[in-house]
Specification:
Elements (H helix, E strand, L loop, with lengths): L6 E4 L6 H4 L15 H10 L7 E4 L8 H4 L5 E4 L3 H14 L3 E7 L2 E7 L4 E2 L15 E2 L5 H5 L4 H7 L6 H15 L8 H14 L8 H14 L8 H20 L8 E5 L4 E5 L6
Parallel strand pairs: 1-2, 3-4
Antiparallel strand pairs: 4-5, 5-8, 6-7, 8-9
């Protein structure tokens, strides 16, 4: 918005009292019971009257492939893993930049599928570095990555490995998308699920026991607050995401390639290039 980019906001849910005490700045107490996208649109528009703000109030699950393919960039914040994977698959096939962001308590993560995106290196002062040719990115879709059995291989192939935050948030996302509401905070069932998931994704219970243990510890500590929104964490994650979208739209400088994580307990942000075999 502030950079002059028009946006379309999609949300099929209604404003609740919980929204008023969270990280949602674009709705007020008079909006409780009304559609969130419809209520937020006028306040978002106030940020920049020279851009166009539209809203979609129907569920993303009812949007057709052609409707989704009409956008230049798609960013999903939360939502079900099944819908994220569906939209990611469409964007990957159509060459549309796709982002999926998640926040859970003190931690946040952005997955970027910018497959086929080409960018130019821009030097200080805004001058394009003509000594370097345009760079084209090759990225897996979210659907390909979350279902890949190469997590262990990727972890062992990276200098710093896949971070504990990436693994813990991926496990939490798959857990919350597959378990029942009654089981969501059951630590024993979650631990069993996580260990089975790590094994199916190429991790060795002995060779990789340290990263499995640390990731599991973080995930267990976040199990009771998987849907908690902390305003400072959301602000950092949202700011970084908005900056990256501007990079993609302008094709200037390297965007997220391809996972960004933020640790609110230390203030550390980290980009990890996690690619899978074709």
């Amino acid at each position: 918005m502030l950079a002059g980019i028009s946006v379309t906001v999609q949300d099929s849910t209604n404003v609740t009292k919980h929204d008023l005490c969270g990280a949602q700045f674009f709705v007020g107490k008079d909006d409780v019971g009304k559609n969130r996208a419809l209520s937020a649109t006028p306040r978002i528009q106030e940020l920049n009257p020279f851009t166009k703000v539209q809203c979609i109030t129907k569920s993303i699950s009812t949007m057709t492939d052609s409707e989704l393919a009409s956008f230049h960039v798609i960013c999903m914040n939360g939502g079900s893993l099944m819908e994220q994977c569906r939209v990611s698959k469409i964007c990957h096939e159509k060459g549309i930049p796709f982002y999926a962001s998640e926040n859970s308590g003190y931690y946040g993560m952005i997955f970027a599928d910018l497959n086929g995106h080409t960018y130019l290196s821009v030097k200080q002062g805004g001058h394009i570095d003509t000594s370097k040719p345009p760079t084209q990115m090759t990225c897996p879709s979210l659907n390909q990555f979350v279902n890949s059995n190469e997590w262990g291989k990727i972890h062992r192939g990276l200098r710093w490995g896949l971070s504990d935050q990436i693994l813990s948030m991926l496990v939490l996302k798959q857990w919350t998308s597959s378990c029942s509401k009654d089981d969501i905070s059951d630590q024993n069932k979650f631990r069993q699920f996580a260990l089975q998931l790590f094994a199916s994704r190429g991790f060795d219970s002995e060779k990789d026991k340290d990263v499995i243990s640390k990731s599991l510890s973080i995930a267990l500590s976040n199990l009771c607050c998987v849907s908690a929104d902390l305003t400072p964490v959301c602000a950092v994650l949202g700011g970084f995401l908005a900056q990256d979208i501007v990079k993609v739209v302008s094709t200037h400088n390297e965007p997220i390639y391809n996972i960004f994580t933020f640790d609110g307990t230390t203030g550390e942000g980290r980009v990890t290039k996690a690619l899978i075999s074709k």
